[in-house]
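Table 4 source record.
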Amino acid sequence: MAGRAVFAGLIFATALGAGWALAQERTAAAGRVPKPALAQAKGDKCVDPTDFMRRNHMQVLLHHRDRTMHEGIRTPQHSLKGCVECHAGPQSGTVVGGSDDFCQSCHAYAAVSIDCFECHAARPRQARAGARKP
């Protein structure tokens, strides 16, 4: 009788473990927080590799800001304007505002607030209301 109880316990533990593993697999596949769904950028390639930009875009933007504001050096490679022109959403025409917009979706995922666009335009010049193409 004791042998049957041990055997039944082993079967129960195995089934419980398999169920737990399946639940973990589903959770990992679905993710606890939905990952950002980003539209394809308009350019052929980013100014730097994607992995680098994901980790370092803020430092790159700050460095570019310092060179522009303090040294008067303006280059298009890491300008916020260039990022916005390339990454503005095809539906909204902006990088912030909606959950599918480029900057907004990643910053919401990372739980980071965005204050760049309190001063800077979140839309490319040609997409802004009333703006003429140069």
